[in-house]
């Protein structure tokens, strides 16, 4: 039997090139070798307020993005989280074995709660438990995610190990799959911060559906560091970030990229990066428009059916081990 991967993205805001390079690109590459399950995590989206009509639309639009990125429904299971009620059920169960202290250490809660724990939603606090539930329900071997999810993955492993220890072997303990390059694409406006959908400054992110003009302007306005060489250099995070995007979009090695830009300046580099990005996103954006609502819903409904079978079996054994049912 092939090993299984599970991953997902939230239908919040617009997906950016960081989401693609850190996660989706790897899903597509791994789907030939792994039994693959990809979820649209709409229950995670409501940890922050959402407009209902926009959320409904964004959920289907995200399915279009998965497909346009190359996730193939003939090879992979694609579904919407809320179509499989076991996610929320297992989350409750795991919340009974998770500890306040370990959740309080989650940096994403601190960032998104903006330090205001009095006003922050409880869902934002317990979100990592729902994520653990997503992964453990499918007896997942490998979870391809960006660097920002590493801490949540560690919590998932801790919860699985604790459950197995206290109630008997039930869950597979998953491994993270975090790519060497692209695991944390940075904001074009502040290379100390990750590129983020919820960044108030849209110039920091290249969205997958940005038009060519916007992409070119954003890249031209991207901040640069001191020094002029186009090289990977930890002390120059801005150029390292831009060069990483170039490397991953062209498929060149790091050395090839550096050699390619030897003796050239930022102006030349940015022009070429903008061209490469626009050319990469053009066919992608055309594919996004290919899926009508009916065919999309058929794919998602078949995916949910398959996911429910695996999820129900896991939840049955969890309840049995705990003395429920
Ligand atoms: N900047 C990034 N570089 C590399 N990978 C990234 N991911 C997110 N940002 C980067 C990875 O994308 C996948 C889907 O992310 P998500 O939809 O769960 O949302 P997120 O991690 O919360 O992403 P954002 O863009 O930062 O959204 P907001 O602003 O809403 O928080 C994940 O695998 C993630 O690691």
What would your notes on this structure say?
By secondary structure, the protein is mostly helical. The chain folds into 2 domains: about 5-180 and about 290-320, HUPs (Rossmann fold, 3-Layer(aba) Sandwich), CATH 3.40.50.620; about 200-285, Tyrosyl-Transfer RNA Synthetase (Orthogonal Bundle), CATH 1.10.240. It is built from 13 helices and 5 strands. The protein has helices at about 15-30, 40-45, 50-70, 85-95, 100-105, 105-110, 120-135, 150-165, 210-220, 235-250, 255-260, 265-290, 295-320, and strands spanning about 5-10, 35-40, 75-80, 140-145, 175. It has a 3-stranded parallel β-sheet. Helix 7 packs across helix 8 (about 150-165) and helix 10 crosses helix 12. The longest helix is centred in the last third of the chain and has 30 residues, at about 295-320. It is globular and about 70 Å long. The two termini are about 30 Å apart. The mean pLDDT is about 95. The structure holds adenosine-5'-tetraphosphate (AQP). Adenosine-5'-tetraphosphate (AQP) binds near residues 9, 12, 18, 148 and 184.
Could you give a short description of this structure?
The protein is mostly helical and 325 residues long. The protein folds into two domains: 4-178 and 292-322, 3-Layer(aba) Sandwich (Rossmann fold); 202-287, Tyrosyl-Transfer RNA Synthetase.
List the helices and strands and how they pair.
Elements: E1 4-9, H1 17-30, E2 35-40, H2 42-45, H3 52-69, E3 76-80, H4 86-95, H5 100-104, H6 107-112, H7 122-136, E4 142-144, H8 150-167, E5 175-177, H9 212-221, H10 237-250, H11 254-260, H12 266-288, H13 293-322
Parallel strand pairs: 1-2, 2-3, 4-5
Adenosine-5'-tetraphosphate (AQP) is lined by residues 9-10, 12-13, 18-19, 22-23, 145-146, 148-149, 183-185, 194-198.
